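Morning run. Coffee first, then this:
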Amino acid sequence: MSIVRRRRVRSGVDYWPGFVDALSTLVLAIVFLLTVFVTAQFFLSQQVSDKDTVLSRLNRQLAELTDLLALERSNRRSLEDRVNLLGATLQTAEAERSRLQGLLGGEAAAGAAAGARAGALSRELEAERKLSSEAMSQIEALNLQLAALRRQLSALEQALEASESKDRESQVRLADLGQRLNVALAQKVQELARYRSDFFGRLRQILGNRPDIRIVGDRFVFQSELFFDPGRADLTLVGRAELDKLVPALVALEREIPPDIAWILRVDGHTDRRPLSGFGQFRTNWDLSAARAIAVVQALVEKGVPPNRLLAAGFGEFQPLELGEGEEANRRNRRIELKLTER
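And here it is:
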């Protein structure tokens, strides 16, 4: 009966290589886990400016760490089961040793054999105790490593919460800044509209009621014939005289509008729909309209209007006021427009 039990004890020791493999796998998994964590910390510090990428990566790393922790807990339960099995085997061996020691006290003849068997059992018992002690040491080390991982996970969660809190604060600040900016822009637009109204009022007083000068929406419209000969972009003497009337109002406007309002006077050149021959100075109506707008701007600059407050634009025949094909429609579409607008 003792021989059978001793064989069972020895058969229990045969599990040790598998136990060692399990511990090696556990150590490798922990090293891999620590490597993943160090890599996650490095990328977190490098990419904190890109919060969306950092948050996504942290979420993936948290998922991986959670899976690894679940695996480590499973391995830990397996180790505890093995330790319990070793403890049960140890108790059985101690019971056998006690029984043998009792037999040694009653039978002198069987004492030598029982002593030998007791010595063997003692050696096996010491080996089992040594294995159990090593297993407990490894379990304790694993517990320490798991505690360190939990602290690191807690630090990651705190960093994630801090990043999310900072992101929420940034969004609130951006929304507030956008609202304040819209209010400021609306105020600037209102101020510019007031100055535009004053400027148009002065131009009406200066130019009077003339059929070749009109107000269309927020623009002063001058017929091209007032400034240029047909097909040309050189200002006539009459045209220069008309521009001289506008200069005082523009100079006064420059002094009155606050510097923080970005305004310009846009000079738009327009032609009628009849195409040019293509052999003269200008090949297309676009060329002619742009050249006329530039000529007006240059004349205003020569008279003292700041060039940074002027813009020349050529629209050709593509923005007509009249859609008809007759001579009257063509005459009304050949024009120079002045528009006070934002830069």
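The chain has a mean pLDDT of 78. Good start to the day.
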